[in-house]
Amino acid sequence: MTANDILVTRFARETFAASLNEASGGAGTPVPPQVEYLARYAERLHAAAVVREEVYVDRHYMDEHAAYYSRMLTPPPHTVRRFHLFEHELTQDGLAALLNEALTSSEARQHVEEALTDKYLGFVSIRPIPAAPVGRTVLRTLNEPGAQREIWALSPYDVHLANLRLCVQGLAFEQQDVAVGACATASVWSALSRVAKHEGMRAPTPAEVSAAASRHVLPHGRGMPAASGLTLGQMCEAIRSVGFAPEAMRPRMPEIFLLAVHTYLLSGIPVVLGLWNDEV
């Protein structure tokens, strides 16, 4: 069995970005802008400590790996590295002491989990793919003066770290790629993750979204690699495959359109916007 090392380090924006880049296999290359953004975001969340899981089996990436990456001549690993962020100082010995304390009784476990959850900022999964490293990620929303983000379609996510269960309120997202999921796939997956969780259902993976979207309609010839993205019809088909009924609206009457979007968001129902211009 593969050992899963858990390492605790102090947070610093530059070293955190470099660690994410190194975890993807991109050591020695420029840090991608998506990774730089996550490092800046974590700094604004006032992250103080990073707990790194060297080996994490992520169902969403495993499906992507099985559907596409495993068929490469030199496939990447099938696991990810996961980085947990906390807004209080934490050391290697301190985490070990908390893990041991949690083993003493159910009351002690509950106390440790509540204490860590109170300071837990979420996690970042890094795929071993330098071109698209950011996998399934859930982080707290910003709550600083003048920088609040009005994101209403949030859910509580239970997160297991060693023998502890933590919780973070957020919305799952990941970086798009041109292999399994382009921008539309990533958007639909993120929205379905919220709705499925709210309904007590198992959330689909990006690979399942791509497969459902291209099962009956393939205007560009093939579903993977997903360089062409999805059409509106394919997005609706992917949503229907999970058991939900999509509503496609066009802003012919802007006031009615905005009212509908606002109503859905207030209800906690995510909205995917498709934007076009003269070139795209």
Find the structural class using helix and strand composition.
alpha+beta
Helicity range:
25-40%
Q: Which runs of at least 5 residues are low in confidence (pLDDT < 50)?
A: none
The radius of gyration over CA amounts to 20 Å
Count every helix, treating DSSP H or I runs of 4 or more residues as helices.
9
SSE string, helix = H, strand = E? EHHEHEHHEEEEHHHH
Q: Roughly what is the average pLDDT, rounded to an integer? A: 87
The major beta sheet can be summarized as: 5 strands, antiparallel
Strand content: 15-25%
Q: Distance N terminus to C terminus? A: 48 Å
Identify the strand order in the major beta sheet. Answer: 1-2-3-4-5
Which word captures the global form? globular
Total beta strands: 7
Overview features:
single chain, 280 residues, alpha+beta, 5-stranded antiparallel beta sheet, two-stranded antiparallel sheet, 9 helices
How would you sum up this structure in a few lines?
The chain has 280 residues and is of the alpha+beta class. The chain contains 9 helices and 7 strands, in the order E-H-H-E-H-E-H-H-E-E-E-E-H-H-H-H.
Please characterize this protein's 3D structure:
The chain is an alpha+beta fold. It contains 9 helices and 7 strands; from the N terminus they run βααβαβααββββαααα. The chain starts with 5 loop residues before the first strand and ends in a 14-residue tail after the last helix.
